[in-house]
Amino acid sequence: MRILIVNPNTTASMTEKAATAARAVAASGTEIIAATSSMGPVSIEGHYDGALAIPGLLFELRERQASGYDAAVIACFDDTGLEAARSFADVPVLGLCESAIATAGFLAQRFTVVTTLERSRVLIDNLVRRYGMGERARVRASDIPVLELEDAASGAIGKLGAEIERALSEDGAEAIVLGCAGMTDLARELQGTYGVPVVDGVAAAVKQAEALVSLGLSTSKRGSYASPLPKRFTGAMSGFSPVPRAG
């Protein structure tokens, strides 16, 4: 089984961090292929960044088709471009937020997602509600710019820990979800520190991708995720014009 991990931002070190987390949980027969977007923002913080990251994400999904992959994971907790990717791909595509909160729902009645900035908190809160977990989950921002998670001297880990402590004491959280792909390397350490399940979206998405592939299931192509209709795209988007599917 081959699972493609696509980082929709252009920071390669974050891709490697996600790939390392994915390989740590992947089954022995699973190959993890990591790809970094070649265009777009260096980090994704809010709607504007997310919108401009989608073309690079779709480009990577298309370019990797020739070598083949059985499922794809979008390594951004905003689930950037997830709907478009599911429409494009013929294999299962998973987002970190949807995968992580589904996993947390198996483990706790109440849980808190701790993310980076307030603008991301609002976006993720909307996703949590859309995915049906609004009554069970709260989303908190720790006031950490995404790229500060790459800098050990930034104080980001202390801010994250302080917000987790508030979630446990004020929200009654029984589990914590890490709301950024850049936090993926911290899950085990934080779980040991706070004594509650700490869910990393990368790990959750990889295991769910393996399950879907093993079950022989993929995204429905009837209705909302049907393949794009062939048509001409113009200007800078001309290279993204959908083509007729074989058969």
TrEMBL record:
The reaction(s) annotated as catalysed by this protein in its Swiss-Prot or TrEMBL entry are:
D-5-isobutylhydantoin = L-5-isobutylhydantoin; D-5-benzylhydantoin = L-5-benzylhydantoin; a D-5-monosubstituted hydantoin = a L-5-monosubstituted hydantoin
The family database entries (InterPro entries) matched by this protein are listed as: Asp/Glu/hydantoin_racemase, Hydantoin_racemase-like, Iso_Racemase_Enz_sf
GO MF: amino-acid racemase activity; hydantoin racemase activity
Under Enzyme Commission nomenclature, its number is: 5.1.99.5
Note the superkingdom of the native organism: Bacteria
One Pfam family cited in the UniProt record for this chain: Asp_Glu_race
Enzyme class (EC, first level): isomerase
Report the sequence similarity comment from the record.
Belongs to the HyuE racemase family.
* UniProt cross-references to PANTHER family, sorted A to Z: PROTEIN DCG1
Tell me the protein's name: Hydantoin racemase
Native organism: Rhizobium lentis
